[in-house]
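testing teh design pipeline on a random one, pls ignore if ur not involved
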């Protein structure tokens, strides 16, 4: 399979989130993980429910960034590929996930946001 995913870094994501056209940031983990720790402002659409993004984000050119726990997690790349196959044209994978977000010095929110995994 050819790797076509566009990736983004924590710093790029942070800048994009404060831009004139911030991306929709999607946590692709399950609801329990989402409640535990997440990037502020992100929404929860688990990878196995990613088709529901069509209801949340009707415009296929809307910037979307997906993420999961860390670089070893494959939920966000799978979600990004699925979104692209659904016709979304501006999808990025933040493959470092919430672990990379914290490593970059940015805060997480959630019931376990202050704890390390």
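output:
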């Amino acid at each position: 399979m050819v790797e076509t995913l566009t990736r983004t870094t924590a710093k790029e994501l942070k800048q994009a989130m404060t831009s004139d056209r911030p991306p929709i940031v999607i946590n692709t983990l399950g609801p329990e993980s989402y409640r535990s720790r997440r990037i502020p402002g992100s929404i929860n659409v688990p990878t196995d429910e990613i088709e529901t993004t069509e209801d949340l984000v009707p415009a296929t050119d809307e910037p979307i960034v997906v993420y999961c726990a860390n670089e070893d997690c494959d939920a966000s790349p799978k979600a990004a590929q699925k979104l692209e196959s659904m016709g979304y044209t501006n999808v990025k994978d933040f493959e470092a996930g919430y672990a990379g977000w914290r490593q970059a010095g940015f805060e997480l929110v959630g019931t376990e946001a202050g704890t390390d995994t």
